[in-house]
Amino acid sequence: MDAILRVLIAGLVATIVLTVVLRGSQLMGLTRMDLPLILGLWVTRDRERAKFVGIFVHILVGWPLAAIYAGVFWLLGGASWWLGALLGLGHGAFVLLVVLPGLPGVHPRMASERTGPDPTRHLQPPGLAGLNYGRRTAVATIIGHVLYGLVLGVLLR
């Protein structure tokens, strides 16, 4: 039970760090990707409410991923900051190369690369590596995910 509680706490802390880095990079003008808005608009049409709801959606998505990291740490013989950072690098690359480009196919309010916006789809598609939201989007995403893994590696050591 102690191990499960540690994973839950570490996962919550790491996900909050990731969320703050991604949201902060948008607020500082490093990227135009507003992740809370994108995730929140999956749940509600209200753009102002979506920004708030999206933060909790991101935490609810990122939190359970800590269990996957914990499983990988266990399989590889233990957690460390460098292994967590390495896993985070892979996680960030997966998000940039698979998740973000795939969003238009599943997001109810996101335009696609081929069809463009219609009256119900007001979000710009991220494109490969999120490049439609700016060149620094990939950098911010990688940094956030490396920190996510690093925090998990430290807290689960």
TrEMBL record:
Keywords: Membrane, Plasmid, Transmembrane, Transmembrane helix. The keyword Transmembrane applies. The chain crosses the membrane at residues 52-76, 83-103, 138-156. It comes from the Bacteria. This is DUF2938 domain-containing protein. It comes from Thermomicrobium roseum (strain ATCC 27502 / DSM 5159 / P-2).
